[in-house]
Amino acid sequence: MNEGNVGEPISFGARPTSRAWDEIVIRFDSGGIDLGKIREALGRSRERSGAPIERVLTVNFVATHFSQASWEKAQIAMEAACTVHPARLVVLIADPKSDDDSVTARVSIVRPSGAAFVMERVVLTATGKSVRHLESATYGLLVPEIPFVLVWGGRPEGEFLTRVAEQADRVIIDSGTRAASALADVQSLLARGNPVGDLAWARIFPWQALAAEVLDIPNLREHRGNITGVRVVCAGEPAAEGVLLAGWFQSRIKKAKVELITGPLTDTRAPSEELLQPPGQNSNPGFRLPPPPEPLVPGQIVRLEFDAPPAHFSLYREGPLLIASVSGDDDGALVHRTRLPPDAAGRLLSLELKLLSGRDETYVASVDAAVRLLAKQANK
Length: 380
What we know:
Number of helices: 10
Structural class: alpha/beta
CATH topology of the largest domain: Dihydrodipicolinate Reductase, domain 2
Order of helices and strands: EEEHEHEEEHEHEHEHHEHEEEEEHH
CATH class of the largest domain: Alpha Beta
CATH architecture of the largest domain: 2-Layer Sandwich
Strand content: 25-35%
Shape: elongated
């Protein structure tokens, strides 16, 4: 075992606005992980930081990753979540294909940007056969009697995930990082009763909220029981977000015909008529033509349509706005706009952490319906 200090402060999430004290680095070459050494290092790091002896902790975060790059991408999101939920953060980085068999522990006390408290952080990087020690170390580093949240940074499958998920109060995944077919693995986790949260599910909250809001307008409520068809249009092949939105509609309105549509990868909608007027004919001296449309993210939801004859509902993206339009209603047409929130992983993670234990039954029903839709589509 070798122990040393990192000379320069390392800011959590690579942000200079966060404050971190020198990391204590411990290397275990063989024989497992000495948790006593890690706890001792946490105490020394706390002394260096000047943090009070009394800890403020509401949750244990365990974040799993299978490469250093994956963890570095996730740091900012975890920091954002920890500004709301004071935590002990245990990061597991597993590299079983390496020829080296060792575990390196990086222990530090971090003050997330904007937080009035510090966070305890332990990053365990295991290589080769030493990966097998990570699971037991996880349980040994949890603070007892507070919730345990697993943030899974890989594909939602495998024995390790299955075992740890049985112990966790909440398991957070991102099915949007995988092909939509991986929702079948999520369905298997849910079938075992695991309390799963999904960042892809949180991404479609604005679409769900606007659809529900439009259908709750007094003169449009009459159409709620008459929806016959739903179409979710995605940029290219539908990804998890689009499939989950379609599954949500199917689970809520079982009699409706729900379809997943593959759309173009470029936004081909023409600018509105007033923007196309030549500068000489426009009274606004600050007039300028809009920029060309940006390429869409593959799999991104671009439009949601549903029919409740004679009314037709259409929700679609237009830059930072989500717009709902209704036609065919006997009270006339309607257009409603709302601003899309930033698609930041930290914000999405905080949304999913509002439920710290138990299952979101609406999500469970939507995943079941989504998997059935994918199977039906594959059989066509």
